[in-house]
Prior knowledge:
The structure is a homodimer.
Chain A: H1 8-18, H2 21-26, H3 36-54, H4 58-64, E1 67-69, E2 72-74, H5 79-88, H6 107-120, H7 122-129, H8 131-141, H9 144-156, E3 160-164, E4 180-183, E5 189-199, E6 209-217, E7 228-233, E8 244-249, E9 260-273, H10 279-315, H11 340-372, H12 376-411, H13 423-431, H14 440-453, H15 458-470, H16 475-497, H17 504-532, H18 538-554, H19 557-567
Parallel strand pairs in A: 3-6, 4-6
Antiparallel strand pairs in A: 1-2, 4-5, 5-9, 6-7, 7-9, 8-9
Helix pairs in contact in A: 1-11, 3-6, 6-7, 6-10, 6-11, 8-9, 8-10, 10-11, 10-12, 10-13, 11-12, 11-17, 11-18, 12-13, 12-14, 12-15, 12-17, 14-17, 15-16, 16-17, 17-18, 17-19
Amino acid sequence: MWQYHPPLRDIQFVTEELLNLPAQWAQMPSFAEVDADTARQVIEEAGKFASEVIAPLNAVGDLQGCTLKDGQVTTPNGFREAYQAFVQAGWPALACDPEVGGQGLPQSVNAVLHEMLNSANHAWNMYPGLLHGAYESLLAHATPELRAQYLPKVVSGEWLSTMCLTEAHAGSDLGLLKTRAEPQADGSFRLSGTKIFISGGEHDLTDNIVHMVLARIADAPAGTKGLSLFLVPKVMPDGTRNTLRCDGLEKKMGIKGSATCVMNFEGATGWLVGEANRGLAGMFVMMNAARLHVGLQGVGHAESAYQNALAYAQERVQMRAPVREATRQNAEADSIVLHPAVRHNLLRQRALLEGGRVLAYETAHLLDLAERHPDESVRHVAHDEVSLLTPICKAFLTDNAFASAQAAQQVYGGHGYIHDHGIEQCVRDSRISRIYEGTNEIQAIDLLVRKVVADGGVKLGGLITRLQQELPATELAERVHPWLANWQQATQQLLQQCKGDPELPYRVADDYLRLAGLVLLAQGWVRAEAVAAHASSPFHTAKRETARYYLDYLLPEAGLCLARIRAGQNPLPQLHPPPP
Amino acid sequence: MWQYHPPLRDIQFVTEELLNLPAQWAQMPSFAEVDADTARQVIEEAGKFASEVIAPLNAVGDLQGCTLKDGQVTTPNGFREAYQAFVQAGWPALACDPEVGGQGLPQSVNAVLHEMLNSANHAWNMYPGLLHGAYESLLAHATPELRAQYLPKVVSGEWLSTMCLTEAHAGSDLGLLKTRAEPQADGSFRLSGTKIFISGGEHDLTDNIVHMVLARIADAPAGTKGLSLFLVPKVMPDGTRNTLRCDGLEKKMGIKGSATCVMNFEGATGWLVGEANRGLAGMFVMMNAARLHVGLQGVGHAESAYQNALAYAQERVQMRAPVREATRQNAEADSIVLHPAVRHNLLRQRALLEGGRVLAYETAHLLDLAERHPDESVRHVAHDEVSLLTPICKAFLTDNAFASAQAAQQVYGGHGYIHDHGIEQCVRDSRISRIYEGTNEIQAIDLLVRKVVADGGVKLGGLITRLQQELPATELAERVHPWLANWQQATQQLLQQCKGDPELPYRVADDYLRLAGLVLLAQGWVRAEAVAAHASSPFHTAKRETARYYLDYLLPEAGLCLARIRAGQNPLPQLHPPPP
């Protein structure tokens, strides 16, 4: 049945052998005390927590879901106790600033923690998964009074938080949202409106919930420039209940243990976070952290899908493999892991998973560099790269995770379609990551329109140059150099063409992001192969084989992306409804 | 909310304008009385039944599912009444032989009926969907006594039937199955064993259920050559209950209104159908019919996904489109159907859906030619083509349907993840079609190993020649000729190479099938474009635009398949478990 084993060996390969993170931390005063042993120990403990405490609640959470009665939400059995253990062990504060009670560990270590929690139980991890966003937003924008009152409990995880953005008519387009905020004489505001799809809007894990709410102050400009961000607690500082409540839970395809709430604010008291009408900027701080987090959900799902499918394929015996060892010539049937179609399926999963892990951890490390490196120019370059890589992590890694989950399901045959094996839950759960925190199509527009076209390709050129310089002098690298050049060339061409055709970048954005993701993973795999070339263990041999598999079978899709980008120069038909 | 409108206009385009089926029927005495008007009337009635009677039960079937109590299965509210109406209207007998009570309509018309039923309610259609398989098998192999006793009630639909193949340890590999059949003095057999994943193994739609069971007679050879096919009724001819029962219902990802049963046969009485130890041949008759039927499920799901996503995209207003009409320059936001990413999404769906419909209906028509054409050489060629096209229909159309369903879900954003809109059910329901009736990977092996390699590519060469000859003299056709040549050339190369490398066809089978499907749809689209070139209606304009879209954006994937087939010449790594 479904199980989760923390992939400690591969995590160590990526963090230590490939990315050499401990040496990088040593160059940053903030992380001077984090060495390889510390990080490894934290990661091992995180793996234990994920596999022993959280993973056993994954199936039960899916079966039970959440229930709403008289405005109170009950989470599945065990969720509350697991969350309390999580808080007691200090996990929420892992990457928070020591000045506000955090442990000050690097984001790259926090990324490992959240990958593992997501592997183990995506629904459960929806609750603490938003903590970091609220933390960043309060730290950067809240008044000293609000910070003093709320930040310590957010950092410790004693209070959980939400992001209240979406309304029924305003999902991708926050400019359309209508929730109102009326200023009060005491400097507070009264918020009124209905928010939907609020993860953890109500639950029984913590006594208070800190809602971060986007709303419009009376007479604010229309659109996104009239949005302000508010902190609206479930329980007021004096212990009374604020006038907000959960009026419904969504019946969802997956992550059923996560309470997705309809939240009604009925003159609820809140306080402005940051400047009036600058709420979107405050929210974007949260959303960027959240988007990398969603990319890590992709890695997490891809990991649990792969390891379960591999175990099943080794155990399940069906049909004779077309080529068999001499000793098995008379066996009735073989383990299906010997059948070429199953090997392709699993190798594709592995290549996307392990390659995706490199990209995600490297982006988390760039976040550390952007925030903590003593050299301003390093911080600046890292910041630029994070802005490019975040939408790629979010979209590419979650697209791949869903593809891998349903590929893993295919390995199980009919057994994959029933609940018992857990893999169909993985398919359902992983599906949401492609939608929320900005659909993957919106990530693609963010990358191409807002990041690449907006600065004439300057930041992207810098990234590609760095990627070229990092390529080792190997045979495999020779196959990736042309793809980095193709990416750069396609970008230059688009920059020229879109001057006379403003719709063009929108027509090709999805294929552009996929091209970028495929080439990035290729670059990572070539580096991994070079590192693995120095060792002959089965682990390193598999690394080299998988690198080659990626280049042979997965990288060629980049050519398809280029062909589609070229086709995108032509107008795209409008859709007409079929005649009745 | 989720709705189904029968796509009568496109069905008419494919059956009449493109495939010219009425003229083809006129050449077959069996269908001499079926003219365009008759077929159109039947199809319209079928559409009414699907949309008015079956579609309204789709969501409720998903919510309620089936329940088992004391061996009795209760289907969701309305399923039984709908089935009775289905029988009363004579739908089960549509394509059955008039000599045994059928209406003798072509398979191509029956295909339309089942596409529509599957669009409307896949779970409900699981019950009558297996009728045709049992019908074919009894007609071809049963003794006159058995035929007389069972065939009329199977044809009328008064009794539903099952295919009892799978056992827990024997799914794809039927050779491993263990259910035993003990011969009795009266010529009957006593069957004992446990079958799983039996669709409609028990239900409340009909008073009797005719189980077609694969089992092993004592002392039969091991493997598939020791399997025999039996008819085992739920209720004996004397009205007593046979000793078989449903001991469990699977909790599944989707098609929850379909009862998927664990069936225990405890010395149940059955009668041999066909020769002893030749059961697999009898079962394959059923399975081939079933495989085309599953391909039609793909078309059905793709249709309902597309039409619902299109309607939602037209209605939903979010963000400004990058290019807007002058009159809308001040509008707050646009219908999302104007956004390029959504147009790509929907055009891709439409291109795969309408192209897939051509392939499915043409295959159904070839089945008619193979069975009913007066000229033996026509029957022979058609039979060969059906054998090649059936696995392609099954795998390619269901892969595309699942891809389309989850693409449609993406159009809905967050609203696509919740139950209310019905699209997440479509994703869950459509997923099974890639697994059952032989996984899509097994279809690929069937195509390349058992059909193409087995006869040295002779049948395939014939098919490709026919496809080339049918291409019109148009600009688009010039773009497809090279792909037919590429397909043929890749085949010849594989035939050469696999002589010294018996694993090779297994390594490339999935990409080979996908290549075949992509080129087949391209050929169909080029013909459709040529037909549509003669008319200027919005419908025909959209056809031409979609044909071009297919060639620009979807056909290039064939190049990726070729690249992977080339890569497949190299050995494929074996999977090792990661070190602990």
